[in-house]
Specification:
alpha/beta, signal, 2 domains, TlpA family protein disulfide reductase, Glutaredoxin, Thioredoxin_domain, about 400 residues, elongated, disulfide bond, Thioredoxin-like_sf
């Protein structure tokens, strides 16, 4: 629905970087060697001293390579300036990426890792408008925002009083519902406001809006967009977001309708797959195991739900949407159902129901799709995330025979 925006937006975001020029007959692609470093050998045993040694070795090699390139091809002064700035961020970017990568097994003390990071960050500015043309810098600040966001999620769980006081100026009891609807919206905007300013902040706000659209994280999109326009009323990015944000605002006002069916107690008294199947005996069913917190779930719903409903309109197929790990989030849950116009049966699962369905279908992640035949037998759909819509249609059609 909103994907058309992304390519145009990316082109605008990187316009300044792509506008660099080189005089002479230089082959610009060879400059990729300046930032090429393979740290995968440290994936399962990353010691900070070995990591920084490898990075420093590549950094020194980069200096030599760039000097030779400049001497041979005589690029413009603008190109040289931007390349030098980008070079300065190489070590900080490379080390930070390893330090915060959840897939890396790190050894050594946290203090040692932090000391090296602090040393690297002390010689570069985290917020630096002049560095926005460089891939190393863009990589660093985007990764920084992502991992700091995840750090805040952990803080909300482990130190809720301090978290809600600092970021929402409230108590955990009053702030939990706000946070549940704001894990990737205004919270990230506040994080950007704290660490960045100028054109870098403008760039990161645009990147945040792009990510919210691509992840179908739309609940607070208008709020973030309005904040962005207040900060940067003349930004060149604004025009790219006007139409998709207006569409989101319209969808957010959609009400629930009679075809959005909620069992007694929102289905929270159902404890097993058998309990669920009693609601829809003798029908072919597509069960969508999702959650309001799940970006891939929302993306799949946005991409395929309406098309699937349209295809099976008037045919013997039923859609059941089971929301998992959303207890206590009834308002957000129903708002998203209305937003996506999800007609069908909706269940706000308790833990017993979630566990039973996932165990019986040998499933572990979300979204998970389950096909139920008319005779009551069921199995995981052959197509999962990312969904092949035609394959899903074929399988559900066969189940209805």
């Amino acid at each position: 629905m909103y994907k058309y925006l992304l390519l145009a937006l990316i082109c605008i975001i990187f316009k300044s970087a792509l506008a660099q020029t080189v005089t002479g007959t230089g082959d610009q692609p060879q400059l990729a060697a300046l930032t090429d470093i393979d740290l995968s050998r440290f994936q399962e045993h990353a010691a900070p001293i070995k990591i920084i040694a490898a990075i420093n070795k590549q950094y020194k090699s980069n200096i030599v390579l760039l000097d030779k390139y400049i001497a041979k091809y005589k690029p413009s002064t603008t190109f040289i300036r931007d390349a030098r700035i980008n070079q300065k961020y190489f070590a900080a970017m490379a080390f930070y990426n390893v330090k915060v990568d959840p897939s890396v097994t790190r050894t050594g003390s946290k203090a040692r890792w932090q000391h090296i990071q602090d040393s690297l960050f002390s010689v570069v500015k985290l917020s630096n408008d002049a560095a926005l043309t460089g891939s190393n810098y863009i990589d660093l600040i985007k990764t920084f925002c992502l991992r700091e966001k995840e750090h805040l999620w952990t803080a909300e769980d482990e130190q809720p009083k301090a978290f809600y006081r600092q970021w929402y100026n409230t108590t955990p009891d009053k702030g939990k519902d706000i946070f549940a609807m704001d894990r990737g919206g205004m919270l990230v905007a506040k994080l950007i406001d704290k660490h960045f300013n100028g054109k870098v902040r403008e760039f990161l706000y645009a990147d945040l809006l792009k990510n919210m659209l691509s992840e179908s994280n739309l609940q607070n999109l208008p709020t973030v967009f309005n904040r962005f326009k207040q900060l940067y009323p003349n930004s060149g990015y604004i025009a790219q977001f006007n139409a998709p944000v207006a569409k989101v605002v319209k969808q957010l006002s959609q009400p629930l309708n009679a075809n959005m069916i909620f069992p007694p107690y929102n289905g929270s008294k159902l404890n097993s797959m058998a309990d669920l199947l009693k609601l829809v005996k003798g029908k072919a069913i597509l069960i969508d195991m999702w959650g309001t917190w799940c970006s891939p779930c929302r993306e799949e719903i946005e991409a395929h739900a309406q098309a699937l409903h349209d295809h099976f309109k008037g045919k013997p197929a039923t859609f059941v949407y089971v929301s998992n790990y959303d207890s206590g989030q009834e308002a957000r849950w129903k708002k998203l159902i209305a937003f996506y116009h999800l007609e069908g049966i909706h269940i706000l699962a308790n833990q017993k129901l979630t566990d039973d369905i996932m165990n019986r279908t040998n499933s572990s992640g979300y979204p998970t799709y389950i096909i139920v035949k008319k005779n009551g037998s069921y199995a995981r759909a052959r197509t999962q995330h990312p969904v092949d819509r035609q394959a899903m249609i074929s399988e559900l059609t066969a189940a209805a025979k």
